[in-house]
Each structure stands twice: as structure tokens, then as C-alpha cells.
Amino acid sequence: MDRNHRKGIYGDAITQKKDDNNIRILLQNPGGIGFVSGQWNRESYKIEKLKKFAIDKHIDLVGLTEVNKDWRCVPTENTVWAATAPWREIRKIQTSNNTTGNPTREHQIGGTVSMAFDEFSHSISNRGQDRRGLGRWSWMELSGIGGLKTTIITAYCPVNSSGLGGCYSQHLTYMSQHRDELESSIHFIQENIACPRQLFGHDLQQFVEDRVDNGHQNLLMGDFNSEYSVLRDCWMLDLGLLDIIGKQHGYDSAPRTHILSIVCLHQHRLAVPLVDS
Amino acid sequence: MFASAQISSALSGFLAFGKLDGDHRGLWADIPKMLLLGCKIPPHTSPGARRLKLHDPRIVDKYLTLLHDSMSEKYIYFRMNLLHSQTVYPLPEELAGRYKLLDEEICDCMDAAEKDCQKFRMGAVKFSPSYKTAVQTVELWKHRLAYRNGDDYNVRKILVLQNKLDMPYDASLSIDDIKRKLHEARVEHRHCKSIDESLSIEFRSQLADVMEAAGTVKAAVHLQNMNRIEAIRTLFCNI
């Protein structure tokens, strides 16, 4: 066991000072962003910790998954836009949450946030969220020199769960509502797709392939609620995507990225693959 | 994190559990700008902090005193009065040149006064004059010990610190005495560091009273604002 493993990290230890030639990207599933506020003295511990980390480590792009907020119900002074105002001088933010239903309350499981800071944010030429409005991913398009374009996607795949109001249930509701849509509609769902996870896999694959066809590079990060080896070998390779951390530190030695509870283990056994074999 | 084959990371890894809140690890990667954007964006330059701040009357007073002293030293008031008395219309080229020279000298004096009117402080330990004195005392005795031992020393630094701390040079001190003084200074420094919060609050309260006396806003409002600024300064660890 090397020194890094003793400290509980995997791969490289994050450096205090970032090399100016690099862009530092952070992905985190906070399990609900909690109360967010533009007033410094009302910040939650969760957001304060993230803020300190993002500032201290000079993070250029923060991707958050499972944010659990319906931003339509949040007062403007408590939005992520207001809360991140004092973090850095310049920022661009793209959120995604399920907007297919009526706004009822702030807490809504799922959703993502992509936040770009300082000079890196000037490279962003376009951004958006998934076209169905289910809040499954948010994306940012970077425009570089010579027409080089890179799309960075922050995604959250629903976990198979029977909980009411859960992300999976929300997507099931959406699927049942739009089952009869015409093929020309953006809400059209193929007949062979019966599970929100399959729909996620299908739609994301379509989105990434569309980007590749347009000559974009892609960087996909997120919480896919899947076994790493299955995700890597059965799906990402088909999309022509490689795990950049695995490429550097080995594909088989990576530890788990979350603490599995008994419920989670059960859910993972039940989890339907992202795409049909 | 999955990316197209041409993208790779310079550094990457998983954070430890608990580094960020939640039951998931944070994943991070440093990706060369060249790979994502095809070019290196020049680093962002933040605007420099100003030393002269008008909300602290003591800094304003110090600035004005320093500016007045340096302008008097260079006879700028006298030269300016002389120039005004010689002014005619249209202004001859020679007088215009003298005006320009005078203006440049005044600007230099203003820059020098601004440079000296306030020192920037970092936010690791809450600032208070007592803590500052404790740090300088340790520094002085370290220099004195080095001077006595014949190691690397800076006499000018010793003189400056002696003047600041109002501690005249005592040639009769032996090495053991200096070591004892250094030890005492370090103990005091540690003590001040451990109570930096209360020392800082005391300092801020005094400053708020001074500001209330100089202006119309209440001391409590000043204090609240200063506490907020101190909290932000500590968080950002910058000026």
C-alpha cells in the first residue's frame, strides 16, 4: 500500500498550485447540494466546503451530479448563480433538472450542474441540457483554435429505485406520458425501451455520436450508477471514449467511488444495463 | 471521466472520502489546454490590490503625512508657487516642461506614499498588532543570534526591527541570554497565535471606535463590515 492509498486517495495527490498550461476539472456527487444562498453567512456546510476546495485548488470546471434541486422553485437570491458570485471573478453555469412536470417544490432528485470559472469560461461557445428536459446531463461546448471543439458533459443516470419522487420514478412517469409520441417529436421513445436507464443510455449515445459526427472531441463525466468495468467495456468503448484516470493509473486497480450501502448493493443487482446487449 | 482517445490527463485521481461532503469521492483531472483547446490561453491576471483605502482614517492620515513629507523634502510646494507666479499666457515651452516635470515628481511622491501607507496582510492567522509584534520579536532575536554566532545576518534588518520594536541594542547580552530571549519570544508568539481570534476582535473593535469618531457611521456597523471582510479574507487567503 503506497502513501497515497494510506491517505485515502487514488492516483495523484491534487496539487495546491495548478499548472497554468492545464485545465483542472472536478466531478463530485454531493448527494444533494443542500441549501444554497448568495448571502455568505447563510451558506450550508456542503457548499462552503466545495467553495473552499474550488478556490484553493484553482478548479476551472466543476461538474456536480445528483444536485436534487428544481431551480424553477428556488428564489433568485438562493440560486447557484447567486451563490457562486463571490467564488471567482468570472463564471458560466449550466444546470439541468427535470422540467417536464410542473414545479412543485425545491427538492427534486437528480439534476446536474456544470460550472466554469475565470479565463476557461471564455472558451465556452455553447451550452445546454438534455433535449428531453429530464435533467440527465448538462453540457458545455469549448471552442479552441483551428475549429477544435470539445464538448464536456456532466451526466447523472438514475438508479433503479421504486421510491416515489425518485429520479427513476420521475423518468418512468415521463416515459408513460410520452409513449405515444410521433417519431418526429423530441419526446419520441422507441418501443423497445422500457427502462429510464435504457432511455438514458440511448439518448446519451445519440448525443455523443451526434457530437462526434460534427467533429467534436468529447469529455463525459458523471455518476452512471453502474459497475465500472461494465460501463467501461460495454458502453464507453462503443462511443470511442476512454477513462482518462484509468488510462493514467491503470484500469483494474481503481477503488470504488462511493460508499455502498446494503440498499445500494441491492439496487446495483437490479440495475438494468444502460443499453441493450 | 471518459474522454475521446486524443484527450489525456497530466495529473488525475480520486479524492479521499470526506474531502468533499457526501458519500462519493470527488474525481479530478488536470488536462492540458493544448488538448482541449488546441492552444495555451495566457494565465488570467487579477487586478492588483490598492494599499490606500479611504475607509480607514489612519491609513489616509499616514498617506497624507508621507506625501506631505516627501513633497516638502523635494521643495515641491515652493517650486509650484514659483511656477505659478511666473505663469503667463500663452505658456512658454520651458514653463510647460517644468510643469510636466513637477507633475511627474508629484506622481512619484504619491506612488511612494501609497506604497508605504499600508502593508498587505494574509489571512492565515487573524491580524492584530500584538501578533505582529510577537512575530517581529522572534525575527529580531533570530537575527541577533545569527549576528552573534557569525552566521548569515542582516544588520540593516536588525536595526529596522529594533526601531520598530523600540528595543535598543544591548551589546552585553551573551549567547545564552539571546537564546533565552528567543525562547521567550517564541512562547509569546505561540500564545498570540493561539488567541489570534480574540486579539483580532479587540483590534477591530478599537479600529471601529476610531472610525466612528472620524465619521458618521456607527462603530457596530463598521465592526460588522470588518468581520465580514476578515471572514472573506481568511477564506480566500489573499488580500
Task: Write up this protein.
The complex is a heterodimer of chains A (277) and B (239). In chain A, 28% of the residues lie in helices and 21% in strands. Mean pLDDT of chain A is 83; it is low at 1-6 and 261-277. By secondary structure, chain A is α/β, with parallel strands linked by helices. In chain A, the strands form two sheets. Chain A has a four-stranded mixed beta sheet with strand order 2-3-5-4. A four-stranded mixed beta sheet of chain A has the order 6-7-8-9, with helices on one face. Chain B has three domains: 1-44, no CATH class; 57-117; 129-236, no CATH class. Chain B is built from nine helices and three strands. Chain B has a two-stranded antiparallel sheet with strand order 2-3. The model of chain B has no long low-confidence stretch (mean pLDDT 85). Classes of the chains: A alpha/beta (277), B mainly alpha (239). Strand 1 (10-11) of chain A pairs antiparallel with strand 2 of chain B, so a sheet runs across the interface.
Task: Tell me the number of helical segments of chain A per DSSP (H or I, 4 or more residues long).
Answer: 9
Q: What is the count of β-strands of chain A?
A: 10
From the N-terminal CA to the C-terminal CA of chain A, the straight-line distance is 37 Å
* Mean pLDDT, all residues of chain A: 83
At the first level of CATH, the class of chain A is Alpha Beta
Name given to the CATH architecture of chain A: 4-Layer Sandwich
As a percent range, the share of strand residues of chain B is 5-15%
Please outline the helices and strands.
The complex is a heterodimer of chains A (277) and B (239).
Chain A: H1 3-6, E1 10-11, E2 22-28, H2 45-56, E3 61-65, H3 80-83, E4 91-96, E5 112-117, H4 118-121, E6 124-129, E7 137-143, E8 149-156, H5 167-177, H6 196-213, E9 216-223, H7 228-236, E10 241-243, H8 244-249, H9 262-270
Parallel strand pairs in A: 2-3, 8-9
Antiparallel strand pairs in A: 3-5, 4-5, 6-7, 7-8
Chain B: E1 2-4, E2 11-14, E3 27-32, H1 33-37, H2 57-73, H3 76-86, H4 93-117, H5 129-149, H6 155-165, H7 175-194, H8 196-214, H9 219-236
Antiparallel strand pairs in B: 2-3
Helix pairs in contact in B: 2-4, 3-4, 5-6, 5-7, 8-9
